[in-house]
Fold this protein.
Amino acid sequence: MYASFIYVFFDVQENFLDAIIKIGLIEESAKFLTLLSVYPFIKKNFNEIVDGILYISAISLGFSVIENIFYAMDSEQPFSLLFQRSIFSTLGHLSFSGYMGIAFYIHKRIHKNYLGIVLSIVLAAFAHGFYDGFIFESSISFLFQFVFIALVILQLWMLKVALGFSAFRQKLVADMFMRTEKPIKMYCTHCNKIINTQEIYFGKIKAAHCFLCDNMLFAYKNVNYLFDYFRPIFNLKKYIKKLPFKIKISAFDINNTILYHSSKKSLSANVVELSDWFEYENSRDKTRILSIPFFGFFLKHLDLKHVIPARDFFDFSTYNNS
Ligand SMILES: [Zn+2]
């Protein structure tokens, strides 16, 4: 509502510059002001970084619904317009605004972050402006799909980054897995044998226990879920693709306690070692992501660097990539 109020005072041209400065900046600031004004009501549940993204996304959805209705009322074919907008514009709106949620969370929960907030609004305005700009400028509009997909991927990646920084992740322990009576045959890389055992699970992560070597066993799909939860920033698929083709068994750690078999597609690991390895590697992922060129710069200045406890910082130059 803030936005329609402000538009009365501006004459918006359909070009790239106006898309960023006027449309992007106005609409994204409006979303931010909405988050600011609902904050007293959500304060109690606003306790981790992912909440920042979730609440600003909810606001974006609401924003997009209202906008879609306005456009539909103006249109001669409201239904096809609504159909199209509900895909592109709704996802688009979600993809612009996550940055503001992250900066705002840090501002409210960690320390004063005015610079990060300004930067996040500028980033959101640029994302929004690029989206609209590529629609407006007919000479480059054929690139719109690529811009759209890039913005959505970038936002999904931001969500992964936020999950990586989340303080709510549990530590991996054997007790967190629930037992079932369901019999299951699993390959154990340590024992080099098929083991007849029972399925255990934590959330959607299914696993099994090898009674011969006492390790935990995970099939490929569950290795993915495991990494999504304990090491969200890491790109496991890319990593596994890069494993040397001839070597069937690769160790994730130096002590050879976490073994992945690339043709059996299964992981077998000592749960204590795996847990320590996840904690250590996730904190490395966090530091690493802040040091990548360009994106790392923005992430750092949204003030994610303050979300890392001091003990997580250390010198990478002395370590080789695992
Ligand atoms: Zn075993």
Notes: Residues 2-165 form one domain. Strands lie at 178-188, 193-202, 205-209, 216-219, 249-251, 258-261, 266-269.
